[in-house]
Design brief:
Layout (H helix, E strand, L loop, with lengths): L4 H12 L3 H11 L2 H18 L4 H8 L3 H12 L3 H9 L3
């Protein structure tokens, strides 16, 4: 069994949605408020790290553990998220 099949199905569905509003409505229906908050936190961690804010300061500002911020920093650099963000930010 392909363990990535649910992720592929999720991505395919997001791709079919035609607007930001449709994506937001879909995510609101699919995810719990806590899950949405986690996404919000992760996005804010990435944003602050990309702005040059220290990991310790990010953790303090957002009220999250330093391990959570460190994971975000690792994903941003080592796992190539920074390159993906740069690539897609340039698209019109």
């Amino acid at each position: 069994m392909n363990t990535r099949a649910p992720i592929k199905a999720f991505a395919a569905l997001l791709h079919k949605l035609e607007s930001e509003q449709q994506i937001i409505e879909f995510l609101d229906a699919l995810l719990t408020p806590k899950e949405l908050d986690e996404i919000d936190n992760r996005m804010e961690i990435i944003h602050l790290l990309r702005q040059g804010v220290s990991q310790r300061e990010v953790a303090q500002r957002l009220g999250v553990g330093i391990a959570t911020v460190t994971r975000g920093a690792r994903v941003l650099k080592a796992d190539g998220l920074e390159n993906l963000l740069l690539k897609y930010e340039k698209k019109p």
